[in-house]
Amino acid sequence: MADVIGVAWATQWVRASAAAVGEHRMELIDLDRAIGDGDHGENLDRGFKAVLVKLDNPDTAPPETVGDVFKLVATTLMSTVGGAAGPLYGTAYLRAAKAADGATVDAAGVADLLDAAVGGIVARGKAEVGDKTMVDAWTPAAAAAREVADGGGTATQALRAAATAARTGAESTDPLVARKGRASYLGERAIGHRDPGAQSSALLLEVAADAAESAESAQ
């Protein structure tokens, strides 16, 4: 496995994210209808389609760093995505952009950018693990990536570990009572429903790992 991943991976992650969100749009809408406004899938789909438009615009300067890609995602989501998802995801990508300011990132860099993303989400949403939010997916994902990095693993391995942890984290929101967001008004009626933000987070991190593995297989 490659020790590092770069701008090509980050760009492919964006494209894969747009495709995955489009494919799972109705699933995310249905999850959000159960405990929220019902617009999570629609908002994310619109946001990532807008990111692709900017990415493919010939007037857009080609990204030179991984952070450049993330900054494009951040600013576009913040300006096009309504509800809580825009500010939360936008801040996550913006913080990640600052952490990934080089042309490549290694496993430690993956852990750093995920840690930064978590910090942005927490700062914006004031949530913590157990509140039935996207934090329940991102926090274990960052911890898993750090464990791989500390153990001498590769960037791709760190991303796969993060994706697996995020999926488990999203599933862990099913039995929780929400303590943040619109779902918190439902009390125990939110039990049994997965948090849509945690689900979309797991989806995005899964395609991040897929993009890294795909890049390796093409080498």
Automatic annotation (TrEMBL):
Keyword Iron-sulfur attributed: no
Cited Pfam families: Dak2
Domain (DhaL) ranges: 8-210
GO terms, molecular function: kinase activity
SUPFAM superfamilies reported for this sequence: DhaL-like
Coiled coil: none
Keyword set, alphabetical order: Kinase, Transferase
Highest taxon of source: Bacteria
Name of the molecule in the record: Dihydroxyacetone kinase subunit L
Lineage of the organism: Bacteria, Bacillati, Actinomycetota, Actinomycetes, Micrococcales
Gene that encodes it: dhaL
